[in-house]
Design brief:
- Pfam families: ABC_tran (PF00005).
- Keywords: ATP-binding, Nucleotide-binding, Transport.
- This is ABC transporter ATP-binding protein.
- It comes from Anoxybacteroides rupiense.
- With 236 residues, the chain is α/β, with parallel strands linked by helices.
- The protein has one domain: P-loop containing nucleotide triphosphate hydrolases (Rossmann fold), CATH 3.40.50.
- It contains 7 helices and 10 strands.
- The longest helix is centred in the last third of the chain and has 16 residues.
- The two termini are 34 Å apart.
Length: 236
């Protein structure tokens, strides 16, 4: 049986907005195994973004525990959290976040540049990652010369470049048409088959139901279901 790469127990997170207290997460527990392909679905304001920040080590819970690959996240300092993000998690976002003056290859290389890797080695790795997403022929194009789907492929290649075990995708198809969205999901399915653990945060039911597992977040609480048992109307 695959080992647990993420273990979350009774996670809570509260924010103050003005004079109001908002319980963004209310006692969430979740176990994710190595090689899972998990979709987290829910409407706006359900706690999806807060939960994504927790999984991605971008924020800390008020209470509860979070173990990532055996390490308890709450015990780590900011530098240790940054190292975990760099080594363990590849981030993919709806808006791509490519640097406009860098080519596709240079954008993919960037995380390796921050690690101090020599240019020849990082270029070779970046080229391999662009090949994985079917975009090596566009390596020297700027983001403005690429379609939205191509830009997202570059963003996926950038997420892959450090060979992280986990890919965390926040609405990765949100800015794309349905045909291009399916192409991106197919790439993620292929990466999952190669061993990457995939976690997609989405409000799109068509995307969610292609994952191996689906959990629904509503009012800061988590419910796990099979696709057969969630009506599309339950996801806004």
């Amino acid at each position: 049986m695959a080992k647990s790469i993420i273990e979350i127990q009774n996670m809570t997170k509260t924010y103050r907005l003005g004079g109001e207290v908002v319980q963004a997460l209310q006692g969430i527990s979740l176990q994710i195994h190595s090689g899972d392909f998990l979709a987290i679905v829910g409407p706006s304001g359900s706690g999806k973004s807060t939960f994504m920040n927790m999984i991605g080590c971008l924020d800390r819970p008020d209470a509860g525990s979070y173990f990532l690959d055996g390490k308890e996240i709450a015990r780590l300092n900011d530098n240790e959290l940054a190292a975990i993000r760099n080594e363990k998690i590849g981030f993919i976002f709806q808006n791509f976040f490519l640097l406009p003056r860098l080519t596709a290859l240079e954008n993919v290389e960037l995380p390796l540049l921050y690690r101090g890797m020599k240019i020849k080695e990082r270029q070779q790795i970046a080229q391999e990652c662009l090949k994985k997403v079917g975009l090596i022929e566009r390596a020297h194009h700027l983001p403005s010369q690429l379609s939205g789907g191509q830009q997202q492929r570059v963003a996926i290649a950038r997420a892959l470049v450090g060979n992280p075990p986990i890919l965390l995708a926040d609405e990765p198809t949100g800015a794309l048409d349905s045909k291009t969205s399916q192409e991106i999901i197919n790439i993620m399915k292929g990466l999952n088959e190669q061993g990457h653990t995939i976690i997609i945060i989405t409000h799109d039911w068509e995307v969610a139901k292609q994952a191996k597992r689906i959990v629904r977040i509503q009012d800061g609480r988590l419910f796990e279901s099979r696709g057969d048992f969630i009506e599309a109307s339950s996801v806004d």
